[in-house]
Amino acid sequence: MSAADWYAHKSLGDGLFWIQERFYQSENRANIWLLRGSHQDVVIDTGLGLRSLPDYIDGAGLLGEDPQRKNPLLAIATHAHFDHSGGLHQFQQVGVHSAEVDAVANGDNFETATWLSDREIAEAPSPGWRARNYRVKAVQPTHILQEGDVINLGDRQLNVLHMPGHSRGSICLHDRDNKMLFSGDVVYEGAMIDWLPYSHVSDYISSCERLVGLVDSEQVDQVLPGHYNTFGAKRLHRIASSYISRAGTCPAKFSTFAWGTLAGVALRAFNPRCAC
């Protein structure tokens, strides 16, 4: 299967494209965002990496043909989990938060929470492909990101917000001028997962409190999440506030512990070669 078949995209205007993996039919299918700038273009999250994302972007003409554009496309993972980082190895420039550099550089399929089944792939990307052989490929990041870093695209800037909880290196990218927040898996329209390896509930509560603060200070109008559909500031406030209220309760703590134990056992069994 070609990259042109595997991916599809939609233009949201102003140099923003929403890319998805058509045949990865799962709740884990991550949104891939391509944002163009006057001097630098950035891909936010990269999907599974089963077909060449750079080839698709180039073949679909999403970057245009500006002869002045010399910087290679920068791929940033909002966090290291497999559905977001699987395609990082396809890019010359790769950015991740410092807390997850080792996971990406070592191809640690335990920390990347790699779990893929054949039933999630509607059509095999290549003859004989099987999910049990899938692994996130190691790649050495060129951009080690920290809280407060600014990614300069020329005519727009993305501010790095370290928002741990879902994973230890989870980040949001905030376009302050346009009040847009690329939230990764910190927040989206669905159950917020705080029971994977390196998830941490108290960190997640702090991150959600920070999200509420962004809304209260009118710094966010639109959220472009790691999964499902985009939404606005009121919905962001409601989702983050609900998590804060729920996460500290006894039933929630027990559920998180139980799911975390099961997830750890399952991931170790699925990734026996991991150093964990």
Automatic annotation (TrEMBL):
What Pfam families does this protein's entry cite?
Answer: Lactamase_B
In terms of superkingdom, the source organism counts as Eukaryota
List each copy of the Metallo-beta-lactamase domain by range.
29-227
Under InterPro entries, the record lists:
Metallo-B-lactamas, NDM-1-like, RibonucZ/Hydroxyglut_hydro
* CDD domains (alphabetical): MBLAC2-like_MBL-fold (cd07712)
Write down what this protein is called: Metallo-beta-lactamase domain-containing protein
Question: Species name for this entry?
Answer: Pagothenia borchgrevinki
